[in-house]
Amino acid sequence: MPEVQKILIPVNFSEDSADGLKYAVSLAKETQAELLVLHVAQKKEAETFLDFLAVMEGLPALNRPAGIPLDRLLREKALDLYRFIEEVVRNPGRLKISRRVVLGNKEDKIVEVANTERIDLVVLADGKKPFFPRLMARGKLLKMISTLPCPVLLKLPVFESWPHSGIIRRSAYARS
């Protein structure tokens, strides 16, 4: 495998993406690679943000103004990303961390940034979703992975031990 010089880690400010970021930071430190932290804001967030602004300004949310302040949303998300990285990465040392916030479809933008930035490795944090939403997301994930120009490392969550409260009991016939 060629030397890893640039690692991409997409984040959504969740606990799972914080775990993925910690993992990517340790990997980047070990390989002395540059780390690019990406947040993809989506149009739905822009509309929600606009409704929030309208309510704060005393306007009814149903009478939406003609233009959505996307530049303001992107600035707010960039600030959120900066704070998120500061909170998660306590001591970056000499690690070079770049930040990027873009608007669009999450899967498409990850592939686009991986291509334009010549990324050598993408680290994806897989969340603790229930089975059926996870199954549906797997199709999108596999499609995105197949179009990426570099290897992908999936950071899976560490699950708690299996619950023993009445779901599975030791059989009375089992040997000690």
How would you portray this structure in words?
The protein has 176 residues and is of the alpha/beta class. The protein has a single domain (6-155), classed as 3-Layer(aba) Sandwich (Rossmann fold), CATH 3.40.50.620. The chain is 44% helix and 16% strand. The protein is built from five helices and five strands. It has helices at residues 15-31, 43-56, 70-88, 106-116, 131-147, and strands spanning 6-10, 34-41, 97-103, 121-125, 152-155. The chain has a five-stranded parallel β-sheet, with helices on both faces. Strand 4 (121-125), helix 5 (131-147) and strand 5 form a beta-alpha-beta unit.
Compute the number of strand runs. Answer: 5
Widest sheet, order of strands: 3-2-1-4-5
The third-level CATH topology is Rossmann fold
Give the C-level CATH assignment. Answer: Alpha Beta
Q: Report the mean per-residue pLDDT as an integer.
A: 79
Unreliable segments of 5+ consecutive residues: 160-176
Q: Classify the beta-strand content into a percent band.
A: 15-25%
